Amino acid sequence: MSETLGEKLRQAREERGITISEVAEQTRISPHYLELIELDDYRTLPGGIFNKGFVKSYAKYVGVDEVEALQDYSKIISTQTGAPDDEPKTYRPEVLTDDYSSSSSWTTLIFAGIILGLMTLGIYALVSYLQSEPSAVTSNNSNQANSNISNSNVNPTNANAAQTLPATNEIKLEFKTSAEPISVSATIDGKKKDEIVSRENPKTYLGLQSVKIRYYKGFVNQVQLTLNGKQITPPPAPPKGNGIEFEINKNNIAQILQSGQIQTEAANAATPR
Known about the structure:
Helix content is about 50%, strand content about 20%. A four-stranded antiparallel sheet has the order 4-1-6-7, with helices on one face. The chain has nine helices and eight strands. The relative contact order is 0.07. It has about 270 residues and is α+β, with helices and mostly antiparallel strands.
């Protein structure tokens, strides 16, 4: 007895070591339909050209002659039904196709439109941000520059004032000579004393209220004074009299430190107006 179509297909598949699942995956035919074809049972298959397509695809994949397979299929259908199987049944075949894609095309288009809209909004927001940021940075830089200029105009004055104005809670006067010894008469907070100041033996006079100094005007160019750590220019020689006399007290110490020199009443009177 000759082999049926289903037996030929099954034998060819098994000889090649191919499973039903593999045939279904490659031909996109339901595994259930493939099993029925191997059993020559086409009663539940769609019929017509669908069955012929199934048989042709199966035969081609397992290496069976397609024309011969279709002829065997026609004989089986004629035997089972008594008429050629040319018309398909009314229900849809269980073929693993992508027919569902057409029904979901509108959904895909809607999602694509939403994504495109979101991307457009994102790009617009990014461009707006990039355009506004430089102006904000420029404004901040301008404000910072103005602040720095303002600070540069104020800070040096404050710094100089801090550097040139030592503490004034006491009066500390250092008296030095660069050449000959000088006889100095000093009155410290009302207490008077006379002493000799030499290059090797400078004197420091420390008072809380006042320090009054008197020496011969012939030594005007030799005297070196330091008040509270800051070097001070001694007063000039007066036009009259033989002595140079000045007083440093709580009322004038700040002015002397700020100006860096000592002005006597005699020197002020001799200065032309």
